[in-house]
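2024-03-11 09:14:02 INFO worker-7 job=invfold-0412 stage=load source=structure_tokens
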């Protein structure tokens, strides 16, 4: 299951993390975000070596602004606490998984 992140636990779970972390910036009213939710959950189940997390942009605006999230869904991949990839828009599981696997 994807980890729910907030402004309070973001640094601990993401920027201070050693491995690869994929963060899905989403909102409950966003249609494409709703489409991506099961894809993100499937990835969380399949990729045990990667932390998959979600940030509700409505409830955590500071984090969204910090990473210049202007449209959703936006995915940011961190490795060793550093941003290594950032992209927006809905996509299939295989495409998302391929983007993540490039950073393993």
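2024-03-11 09:14:09 INFO worker-7 stage=emit residues=104
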């Amino acid at each position: 299951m994807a980890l729910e992140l907030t402004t309070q636990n973001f640094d601990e779970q993401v920027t201070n993390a050693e491995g690869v972390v994929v963060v899905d910036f989403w909102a409950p009213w966003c249609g494409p975000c709703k489409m991506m939710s099961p894809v993100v959950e499937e990835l969380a189940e399949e990729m045990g070596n990667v932390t998959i997390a979600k940030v509700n942009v409505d409830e955590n605006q500071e984090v969204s602004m910090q990473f210049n999230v202007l449209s959703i869904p936006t995915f940011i991949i961190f490795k060793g606490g550093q941003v290594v990839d950032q992209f927006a828009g809905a996509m299939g599981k295989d495409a998302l998984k391929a983007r993540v696997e490039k950073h393993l």
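2024-03-11 09:14:09 INFO worker-7 stage=report msg="The chain has one domain: 3-96."
2024-03-11 09:14:10 INFO worker-7 job finished
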